[in-house]
Amino acid sequence: MTLLSLDGAVCRSRRLPRAAPALAFAAVSGLAFGVDMAVLAVLVHGLGWPGLASRGASIVAATSGSWFIHRHATFSGRARRPWLREWLHYLAVNAIGMTLNYGCYALIVATSAFGPAHPLLAVIPGGVLAMGLNYALASRWVFVSRLSSHR
After folding, report:
1. Are 138 and 70 in contact (CB under 8 A)?
2. Which domain holds residue 64?
C-alpha cells in the first residue's frame, strides 16, 4: 500500500482517515511552536535583538516553516498555486488566527486571576482555537482541493 498524501486525496489501496490531515496539521503546528520559541530565544538571548523585532522574525520563520511542510506533506495531494502566492495566502490566513489567539490571551489575562498567575498556560485556549481556525481556513482557501471550486 502506498499513501500519496496526508490529506486523503487519493491513495492506491485505501483512503486515509478523514482526521489524518487535521492531526497532521496539529502536529506541524506543534513543531512550528517549537521553531517560533527557538528562533525567538536565539535572536533575543543569542544575538541581543529587541523583543518585538525578534518576535516578528520568529513568527514569520515558524509560519513559513509550517507552510512548507503543509505544502509538501499535509496537503501534498491538493492543487498548487505558485509558491509565493500560496505562501502569502497562508501568512494572511495565519494572521487571522494570530489575532484570535492574542485576543483570547488578552481576555484571559485581563479578566481572570488565572491569566496573570499562569501566563504560559493562558496561551493554550487561544492557541487551540487559532489552530482550528487556521486549519479550516488553510484547507479551504490556501491548499485548495483539485476537486474544489474554492479559489
Report:
1. yes
2. 20-142
CA distance 19 to 13: 18
User: Could you tell me which residues come within 8 angstroms of residue 105 by beta carbon, excluding any fewer than 6 positions away?
Assistant: 115, 122, 123, 126
Q: Does residue 5 fall inside a structural domain? A: no
Q: Is residue 6 part of a domain?
A: no
Count of domains forming the chain: 1
- For residue 59, is it within any domain? yes
- 81 falls within a domain: yes
Cα of first residue to Cα of last residue in the chain, in angstroms, is: 32
Residues 90 and 128: their CA atoms lie apart, in Å, by: 18
Q: Which residue has 481556525 as its cell numbers?
A: 133
**pLDDT (tens digit, 9 = 90+) per residue, 66-117?**
999 999 999 988 878 899 999 999 999 999 999 999 999 999 989 999 988 8
* Cell 489575562 found at: 109
